[in-house]
Structures are given as C-alpha cells and as structure tokens.
Amino acid sequence: QAYLSYSNIAALTHLARKPGWDITKTLDNVKIWTHEEGAVLSFKVEMQVKVPSHDAFSLLSDFSLRQRWDRHFLTCEVLQAVSEEEKIYHITSAPMTGQQPRDFVILVSQRQPCRPQEPYTVAVRSVTLKAMPPLPEFCRSEILCAGFQIYSNSSSSCTVCYFNQVTSGVMPYLSANLTGSSKSIEDTALECIKFLE
C-alpha cells in the first residue's frame, strides 16, 4: 500500500512536469491543455479560483463531494480508508449513449506541500480490490493517472490544475469535447470553480 500511494503521487507529479503541453482552449478563468506521447493522450485543465489553496485542497480531496460539481459521477462510496491520506472509492458514472454505465475502483492519495512553492496534490489511479470484483451491470474501467495540483496564488486565491491520462474507459466522456461537439470539460471546470467558491 505504501508503494501504491507513493507511485500514485509520483505518477501525477511526473505527468504534470512533462514538457510539450499544447494549449487548446482559453476561457476567462479556465485553460485546457493537451499532451500527446505515442498513443497516450493526456489533458490538463487549469482553473483560477478565488479561495485559499488549503480550502480547495480539502474540498477536492473528498471525492464524496464530487457529484456536486461533476455530472459524470453518479455515485461515490468509500470502500476503504487506508490511512488519513489514502482512501479507496467505488465510483459509478452515467452511461454514454448506447453504452453500458461504467464503474471505477480508485485509490485517492492526498499530500500537503512540504515547501511553500510546492502544490497540494490529490492523485488518482485505479486499483484492484478483492472486496469489489467487477459487477455485471457495469463496464469496469481504468484510470491510469489523474488528479489535482493546487498552487497558492495569494491568501485568498489559487490555481487548480486537473490532469487525466486518457484511457479507453475515460475517452467516451472526452472525445466529443476534443472534437468540439461538446463542452463537457469546460462546463465541468466552471461547475468546479462555482462549487469551490
């Protein structure tokens, strides 16, 4: 478990630091970036939020609050509180047209910054849990690497960066966005800002 949580944080930090991010869209307080490496597509959503970084961290690290701003989350249940900084959740998400609803078993690892210039981190990856085998009514899907980095701008504002390394399980929720026929990433980002503020 210690290795899993360490590699969860390390994978997100590594993804965030990769060179070659391309900006694809800019709104007032939201920027969307993509990164392609071979067959792997990742995206980053950067949000400017008028709340202190520690408040954003405490709200975003509690995934049971996620349904309040992310309409892709139908249910979210804590399966295991591994430690104060680690929880395993079972999430179900709404079906896309003509598809079976998907579910995910994820480890969420949270870390406070060690030094002032470092971000708060909330890292997410799929894990296997014997207590939660795949269910027949859901298509079990995988998150390779996702999560938030939260940087303090001032005592009352912060920059929240959301990252996701896209897998086939996540792709249906994004493809319409990336081709321009849907605005779900922007809409979700704006809902996230509204929720945090």
From TrEMBL:
<dbReference type="GO" id="GO:0005737">
    <property type="term" value="C:cytoplasm"/>
</dbReference>
<dbReference type="InterPro" id="IPR002913">
    <property type="entry name" value="START_lipid-bd_dom"/>
</dbReference>
<dbReference type="Pfam" id="PF01852">
    <property type="entry name" value="START"/>
</dbReference>
<dbReference type="GO" id="GO:0008289">
    <property type="term" value="F:lipid binding"/>
</dbReference>
<dbReference type="InterPro" id="IPR023393">
    <property type="entry name" value="START-like_dom_sf"/>
</dbReference>
<feature type="domain" description="START">
    <location>
        <begin position="16"/>
        <end position="166"/>
    </location>
</feature>
<protein>
    <submittedName>
        <fullName>ACO12 thioesterase</fullName>
    </submittedName>
</protein>
<dbReference type="InterPro" id="IPR051213">
    <property type="entry name" value="START_lipid_transfer"/>
</dbReference>
